[in-house]
Amino acid sequence: MKILLLGATGTIGSAVLSELLQHDHAVLALARSDISEQALRQTGAEVIRGDIVSPSHWSTHLCHVDAVVHVAATFCQDMGAIDRKLIDELVAQGNKLGRKIRFIYTGGVWLYGHTENQVVSENSPFNPISSFCWMIENSALITRAQCFDANIIHPGIVYDRDSGALSGFVPDKGQIEVWGSLETRWPVVHVNDLASTYRLILEKGCDGESYNVCGEQGVKVGDIADAYRKRFDLTTQPVVRPVEDVIAEHGDWALGATLDQLMSADKIKRELNWRAHHNDILSYINEPNSPFATSPS
């Protein structure tokens, strides 16, 4: 299968790229710069130049692929409008093909809002934070498009060794910072486990299905902070910043990291036989070969 991968150099996208290539799929990756193009070619991917802001410059390449995996986002103020323009262009090109191709769109756990003590499933109603409301409408456009066999993935909080949720936990001065509350719970998923779900859905997914993906249903942020304190032998307690201060500094999207959430991945386990290989984030932080094995500066 040949897959057009959007966001191939990001945290999720680079893991998806590796997963697909390791399982003998061909990847056509979008690259914004010379540096990105060179890095992507070194993996064995075919590359087209362009970005998601100007999709008309490269969208005709849709005729050369069997599927699209969309894990790209600009994380700017206009990211919803940019994503909508991208989808409109891809639907228009898809309608010219005379055949269906698979399209996997990436949503996220923040679309469920505060879940309190309820473990949300794919049947749970959305209650998105304002910064990501557009994902619901845009994913619906993909699902309704006659040219696509569409699937939606809602990942939990994504982490890995070099980036993702864990990378910002210990600032340069060694003071752990928590947003909102130590009692906040995150559904978490290792990026490699998440990447395998994209491949499984490409190979075996049914049209129109959405899947929640997490390796653990909900881990307290305070417990993650404690794991860091033990790793680095820190004597200081975490600084808990009020939600309003965090939003004032980082923007409305930062509210997502303060949501208390529980999420189930039972559906993808049951239907596609997916299993998480990383199911203990606290032990992961303290593994000997962890990137957190040396003290912060």
Describe the structure in your own words.
The protein has 297 residues and is α/β, with parallel strands linked by helices. The chain has a single domain (2-220, 251-285), classed as 3-Layer(aba) Sandwich (Rossmann fold), CATH 3.40.50. 32% of the residues lie in helices and 21% in strands. The chain is built from nine helices and 14 strands. It has helices spanning 11-22, 34-43, 79-94, 134-144, 191-204, 221-232, 243-250, 266-272, 281-285; strands spanning 2-6, 26-31, 46-49, 67-70, 101-106, 119-120, 148-155, 157-159, 177-179, 185-190, 210-213, 216-220, 239-241, 262-263. Strands 3-2-1-4-5-7-11 form a seven-stranded parallel β-sheet, with helices on both faces. Strands 8-10-12 form a three-stranded mixed β-sheet. Helix 3 links the parallel strand 4 and strand 5 (101-106). Helix 3 (79-94) runs parallel beside helix 4 (134-144). It is globular, with a radius of gyration of 19 Å. This is NAD-dependent epimerase/dehydratase domain-containing protein.
Topology of this structure?
Blueprint: E1 2-6, H1 11-22, E2 26-31, H2 34-43, E3 46-49, E4 67-70, H3 79-94, E5 101-106, E6 119-120, H4 134-144, E7 148-155, E8 157-159, E9 177-179, E10 185-190, H5 191-204, E11 210-213, E12 216-220, H6 221-232, E13 239-241, H7 243-250, E14 262-263, H8 266-272, H9 281-285
Parallel strand pairs: 1-2, 1-4, 2-3, 4-5, 5-7, 6-14, 7-11, 8-10, 9-13
Antiparallel strand pairs: 10-12
Helix pairs in contact: 1-5, 3-4
Spell out the key features of this protein.
disordered C terminus, 9 helices, NAD-dependent epimerase/dehydratase domain-containing protein, 297 residues, aldehyde dehydrogenase (NAD+) activity, seven-stranded parallel β-sheet, alpha/beta, Rossmann fold, Epimerase_deHydtase, NAD(P)-dependent_oxidoreduct, three-stranded mixed β-sheet, NAD(P)-bd_dom_sf
